[in-house]
Amino acid sequence: MTDPWVALEPGADPAERVRALRRAHETFTSVGTVPRPVRPVVAESWRRSARAGVGPDGTAGVELTGGDLGAYRAEHPLARVMPLFRELMGTFAADGEHLLAVCDAHGRLLWVEGHPATRRRADAMNFVPGARWSESAVGTNAPGTAVAVDRPVQVFAAEHFIRRVQPWTCAAAPVHDPRTGRVLGAVDITGGDGLAHPHSLGFVQAVARAAEAQLTLLTPACPGETALLTALGRDEAGLVLDGRRIRLSRRHSEILVLLSRYPAGLSGDELLCALYADESVTPVTLRAELARLRRLLGLQILASRPYRLTAAVESDVTVVERRLEAGALTAAAEAYTGPLLPGSQAPAIVRLRERFAGALRAALIAHRDPDLLARWAHAPWGEDDVEVWRALAAVRPTAPVRARLAALETELTAPVVRASGRTRGATYLQRPPA
């Protein structure tokens, strides 16, 4: 049986296959049907690309440059295995006039290395570090599709969705975090039609497995390692601790976020005031919550007098803060997946949430990057943020942006109609910042 993940079956004529694929591509982009000989994996990718609004004459956008790119790459987990990638693939890429590329889990290229003449050709289509090559941005391509389907994949010539990429052939395989199984990105080899051979797909898959094995050695799962806390954009935080993935209750999420912010610990009274607006809540209630949390985490993780965590905790909040402080605004915005514990009403969490989002939001407005502003404005937490929409309209005054801003400003200045149907003077709707 022919392997559906390999671009050309044995004995296939590459030139004839290219002609057939170009005819199929024109048919799909004009009438939306996918004729043979398009492979199912490619047909499904073309459909996803079309649903994402990708056009066949589009191009990749460069999202990270300079200091933003450098800071993001330096702290990305795949930076630790770049020496391995270069050792295993560098000579092959240079001698074969190919490119070695590594992307993150969003399809953004982090490194592109290899034959100088091939790199210059790739530069013309923005196959460069910092460019987004996800399926949703540029359609079918090996690194973007490998991340999308979480499988090693080859993309041959006119199987690419974007026409300017169709002279190329590439093979890519996803690389996973060995502790959590999360996709970290993909490793890719890009070049000419010769890469359509099954060996190139097996090659990148073997390199990806070697990288995962190396990451296992570099980050062994053992007691005392850094715990990973995810609390942005979700009411119930997630925790990875000693290889275990734990979903926390809302109250336990609040407690862990606060204790992760105060490594020296908090007294019972401080934690009580931070968590409960209701002054009638007794210390007994808090102690019961902490006892349940201690049983969940392990007796040695949560200490008392003061309450503190004995394991180092890296949270998605601190990642955004660190990038923001380093001036890597694009990377900070990418890591911000929503407000901190948005459903929490704990006084300290509310203050932290507003201060944290406000700092990022202010930086975006000051930076005036239209793509970053648009990302915030179209996110659930930014769709009613009139100040961000005003900043976006100033740098990208398209008709939809102006219309949305006009609707928001009208809503903000409209008198509030009470239940009785009567209007009450100068009472206006107030929308808090995101």
Task: Provide structural commentary.
Helices cover 46% and strands 14% of the residues. It has a 5-stranded antiparallel β-sheet with strand order 2-1-5-4-3, with helices on both faces. It has a 4-stranded mixed β-sheet with strand order 8-7-6-11. A two-stranded antiparallel ribbon has the order 9-10. It contains 17 helices and 13 strands. The relative contact order is 0.08. The protein has helices at 14-31, 40-51, 66-75, 82-95, 116-123, 135-138, 142-149, 198-218, 250-261, 268-275, 283-297, 316-325, 329-335, 347-367, 370-377, 386-395, 399-413; strands at residues 99-104, 109-114, 153-156, 169-176, 183-191, 227-230, 238-241, 244-247, 302-303, 308-309, 313-315, 415-417, 423-428. It folds into 3 domains: 14-218, Beta-Lactamase, CATH 3.30.450.40; 221-366, Orthogonal Bundle (Arc Repressor Mutant, subunit A), CATH 1.10.10; 368-434, no CATH class. The protein is an alpha+beta fold and 434 residues long. Helix 15 packs antiparallel against helix 16. One of its GO terms (biological process) is phosphorelay signal transduction system. InterPro entries: GAF, GAF-like_dom_sf, OmpR/PhoB-type_DNA-bd. Keywords: DNA-binding. GO terms for molecular function: DNA binding.
